[in-house]
Amino acid sequence: PLGEVIAAWSLSPQDHAHLTTATNLYCLALIRTGGLNEALESYASFHEQGLLHEEGLYNYGVGALRSGDFQLAYQLFSQSAESITRPAFDFQYFAANRAFYLGKWQEAEAFFKKSLENAGFSAEKMVPSKKEFFQTYYLGLAQFRQGKVEEAYTTLEPLVQQQAWTRSQDDSFSS
Question: Which listed site, 85, 129, 146, 173, has its alpha carbon 20 to 30 Å from 15?
Answer without folding.
Answer: 85
